[in-house]
């Protein structure tokens, strides 16, 4: 199994100044596996993601990516290893056009391996973006920006896509479109780590899920098992 792991993070701690936020979290993601990361507000989900990506300087623990030690890696080194991050708040370039946003993210890399995510395939997957290729990132609606952010992530030909609150604040129709794209990414065999407030949708689209409470893993298991678990509602406060 070890060789099939994309991510193997063990005993992760993280701090903001004197505030100790993650208390020994372990998380494994296998090739092509979709993992949901659940927990109430402020429980450490974004911090865990940002720590894995190298954005939180005060950290401890072991992070292996494809078996390589990335415990002290910088964010650009993690990205180069095939981890694409779609942050809360999207992160598209407002002064570049839709096409420029996509093309500048593009990496040929191992595209041939799976057919890859070409500019054309992103356009087919997101018809709304195709209608707006010349618009600037900043002129797009929130939902379109989110699609552009996901499109950018896919153009890097990732092995693992991390989606932090990708549907936050979007209209129901757009949310439904984004879940459809998440299903496409999964069917493509790209591993995904998903954070979203809609825990039912997360479980429906994941192989496995992990629940954080106060910076610790309090529950984890196969998605169908968690769905049926009485403990889950308690941890999520629903
Ligand atoms: N930049 C920061 N500086 C100081 N404290 C922070 C910072 N970011 C987050 N925190 C604190 O760390 C804890 C975990 O926050 P985090 O954002 O990781 O939680 P979360 O589970 O992602 O919740 P949310 O859904 O609200 O984003 C919270 O107590 C939060 O206030």
TrEMBL record:
Q: Does the keyword Transmembrane apply?
A: no
Q: What InterPro entries does UniProt report for this protein, alphabetically?
A: AAA+_ATPase (IPR003593), ABC_transporter-like_ATP-bd (IPR003439), ABC_transporter-like_CS (IPR017871), BCAA_Transport_ATP-bd_LivF (IPR052156), P-loop_NTPase (IPR027417)
Q: Does the keyword Ion transport apply?
A: no
Which Pfam family name is an example for this entry? ABC_tran
Q: Which SUPFAM superfamilies match?
A: P-loop containing nucleoside triphosphate hydrolases
Q: Where is the ABC transporter domain?
A: 7-236
Protein family per UniProt: Belongs to the ABC transporter superfamily.
Q: What is this protein called?
A: ABC transporter ATP-binding protein
């Amino acid at each position: 199994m070890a060789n099939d792991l994309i991510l193997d993070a063990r005993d992760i701690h993280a701090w903001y100044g004197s505030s100790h936020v993650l208390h020994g979290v372990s998380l494994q993601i296998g090739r092509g596996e979709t993992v949901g990361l659940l927990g109430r507000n402020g429980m450490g989900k974004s911090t865990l993601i940002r720590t894995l990506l190298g954005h939180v300087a005060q950290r401890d623990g072991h992070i292996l990516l494809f078996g390589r030690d990335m415990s002290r890696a910088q964010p650009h080194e993690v990205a180069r290893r095939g981890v694409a991050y779609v942050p809360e708040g999207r992160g598209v370039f407002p002064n570049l056009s839709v096409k420029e946003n996509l093309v500048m993210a593009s990496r040929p890399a191992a595209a041939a391996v799976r057919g890859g995510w070409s500019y054309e395939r992103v356009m087919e997957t997101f018809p709304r973006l195709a209608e707006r290729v010349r618009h600037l990132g900043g002129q797009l609606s929130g939902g379109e920006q989110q699609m552009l952010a996901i499109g950018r992530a896919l153009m890097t030909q990732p092995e693992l896509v991390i989606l932090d609150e990708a549907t936050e604040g979007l209209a129901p129709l757009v949310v439904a479109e984004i879940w459809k794209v998440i299903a496409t990414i999964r069917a493509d065999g790209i591993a995904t780590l998903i954070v979203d407030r809609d825990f039912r949708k997360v479980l429906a689209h994941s192989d496995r899920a992990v629940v954080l409470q106060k910076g610790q893993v309090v529950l984890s298991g196969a998605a169908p098992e968690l769905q049926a678990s009485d403990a889950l509602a308690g941890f999520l406060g629903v």
